[in-house]
């Protein structure tokens, strides 16, 4: 039996029942693929269901304001996905009259859609012979065929894409693509896969040569940087606090946060006091400072680790532009801020 036939046979028996597998509507397929980028299904599924309920069509999503989209996305991380999702919905509605592109090449024109997502939508919705290559596919192919080319190199990207395109079932590309992704997700797992029940254990290079843990090969990423964040949580006599919207480019672009002081290392109470005395809003005013979290909260991102302290600033005056503490939960915030708000319980 060929590789593709063995794979699709396994899929017919072992596939999970997921809502986006019950449709070929490109809006729902696109939505699921964007949500599941960098996200496991068990985490992404509730978000998918919330988005489908809140925005049942691309017209509803396009009509929403960005804050609504970011709020619904809160907790998923990689917020550029949400901003791109919203921008692409507007493009489909405003430029394409609500009709999604019907081929791989035109799907690539949607903001936030790359090779993998375009291939998935084109094959599942339009039966186009476009092979998907994601982390699961890299792992399956590198292990089965014994490929040591780094998956995060330009050479590796081309090599694995070419191989996947050669293997895909031209008569049923949708099933093949979903099968190879599912196989990598639940059978050929990153760590400690159960190869004794694998349908490929008689022909898999990695299993035969006991190198499962060595494949796929990945070039080591650059050293993760450290940043020290000091969030200022103001509390006023009329039960208000201050939130600011992050401007410019960045992972938290357009999300809200408490006023922030960045430092080269964690600040002591005395050091923060000196910083606060230079702020216009506090100059010549009475205020009390207390540290909310004794130990720094370490928030780990792919490229940096944030060492975070939340400082409670109690003042005896009202602050212009402050918001009621009862409204804090209505704003889209990074999960780091969201966790604090939930635990602090204004």
Automatic annotation (TrEMBL):
Origin species: Formosa agariphila (strain DSM 15362 / KCTC 12365 / LMG 23005 / KMM 3901 / M-2Alg 35-1)
GO molecular function, one term: purine-specific mismatch base pair DNA N-glycosylase activity
Cited CDD domains: ENDO3c, NUDIX_DNA_Glycosylase_C-MutY
Taxonomic lineage: Bacteria, Pseudomonadati, Bacteroidota, Flavobacteriia, Flavobacteriales
GO BP: base-excision repair; mismatch repair
Catalytic activity, as annotated: Hydrolyzes free adenine bases from 7,8-dihydro-8-oxoguanine:adenine mismatched double-stranded DNA, leaving an apurinic site
Co-factor note (free text): Binds 1 [4Fe-4S] cluster.
Cofactor: [4Fe-4S] cluster
Residue stretches making up the HhH-GPD domain: 35-186
Enzyme nomenclature, EC number: 3.2.2.31
Keywords, sorted A to Z: 4Fe-4S, DNA damage, DNA repair, Glycosidase, Hydrolase, Iron, Iron-sulfur, Metal-binding
Function: Adenine glycosylase active on G-A mispairs. MutY also corrects error-prone DNA synthesis past GO lesions which are due to the oxidatively damaged form of guanine: 7,8-dihydro-8-oxoguanine (8-oxo-dGTP).
Protein name: Adenine DNA glycosylase
InterPro entries registered for this protein in UniProt: A/G_AdeGlyc_MutY, DNA_glycosylase, HhH-GPD_domain, HhH_base_excis_C, HhH_motif, MIG/MutY, MutY_C, NUDIX_hydrolase-like_dom_sf
Pfam families xref list: HHH, HhH-GPD, NUDIX_4
Assigned protein family: Belongs to the Nth/MutY family.
